[in-house]
Amino acid sequence: MINKIINISHNVSLAKQNGRFLADKSYAFDTVFFLSKFILHNSNNNLFDKQELRDKAIKYTEDIFQLTPGTAGAINYFIETINFLEFSNIIEKSSRNIYKICDREILEYITNKPENAYIFNYLVTYLTFKNDSLLSLFEKFCNTSLIKEKERLVSTIYLAFCEKSVSIQTSGTQWSKQLVKYALIVLGFINGQNEITRELSIKSTRLTINDISLNVAGTRTPVYLPKKNDYLHNFNLDYVKMHLQNYLINKTTIKRITEIFTVSSIAESLADLKLTMLDDKANGVIMNDFEKEQYIVNTVKTRNQSIQRQFRKGLLDHNEHKCPICGFSFENFLIASHIKPYSKCDDTYDAINHFNGLLMCPNHDKLFEGAEYMTIDAKNGEIILSPAVQNSQDFKMLNGKHISRNYIDNERRHYLKWHNAQFLSKK
Ligand SMILES: [Zn+2]
What we know:
Blueprint: H1 2-8, H2 29-41, E1 47-49, H3 50-64, H4 75-87, E2 91-93, E3 98-101, H5 104-110, H6 114-131, H7 135-143, H8 147-164, H9 174-190, E4 194-196, E5 202-206, H10 237-243, H11 266-282, H12 289-318, E6 335-338, H13 348-352, E7 357-360, H14 362-368, E8 374-376, E9 383-385, H15 387-390, H16 410-426
Antiparallel strand pairs: 1-3, 2-3, 4-5, 6-7, 8-9
Helix pairs in contact: 2-4, 2-5, 2-6, 2-11, 3-4, 3-11, 6-10, 7-8, 11-12
Bound molecules: zinc ion.
């Protein structure tokens, strides 16, 4: 899919007349994620009418991003996403308000998970910089840690950007600075760059996922509404790095990911919920708060079950169907046991990764769980028991035994180390 995006968007440039490069809303991958989803959902035979969808898009945007109803500018989320998709050649204008989806597959990819929407934003930005000869300046920007030098490079990029951009009439305006800032933070986030202010000066703090998201507390959010950007909690940086590896400036920290996983993310469920509610509203069905809450609880529950299922499947696919400690092999009783527990996982990747697990019999699963009674040495697979069970008739024979070396590969070792440290801290 990366190659497909590169192919379709190969000619992007700040001088391009149709569509528009990253603007106020479209620089944010979550805007592009949610509004692309809206476009896909509301298109007919790959066509949609911008004017006809206007009111519906406003409602949807206010709901997703928790804007005060009637907020001026809510429509811009929709318009600027359309502009950016047109700029990237994913959609094209066929008449005044009618747009045609040129590549449905890419649009589906973008709306599959928020990470993909970021990957898309990054690639189009990268290509734009490349085609407009700004990329080498950005590389220099990444390769220096001197704040003054970074600021000098940003101002060089800024002037070149203004000169090439058809959207910027005069340089020096706040608007033109914003546009350059957006592009730089989209490129900078995954390359570990510092934060850039509205005035294009550089702070020493690193960019975070919130810096390139729109769903953060902002001036347009009423204070009594807490921001719900749960869908960013599991943002999988390693997944993004792995897919962008050929287009990163800073390539030093790419983790090897051995499996492609598919879990419907919270963001996807949220978008589905809002779209269903809009359709229902049109049909006279209205969900009350309790029903909405139940819907979200059930969505999260379904998601957890789906993760657990895929985790178990991974373990069964890659290991002998028996407990590595005692050889117990009645499959229905074997438990897919997390080494680093699900509740402590940093992201979906950790939760679903079969290397973060072992298939165990119920007794040994219990012994291993929570690192309280037993751990398995990450170095050599040695079983180590806590004093509480060392003298137990049922378990003492295990102490000092080793599980098969086959289980102790580099990736599982990473998780066992975590388990060993927990075990030691509980002594
Ligand atoms: Zn066992």
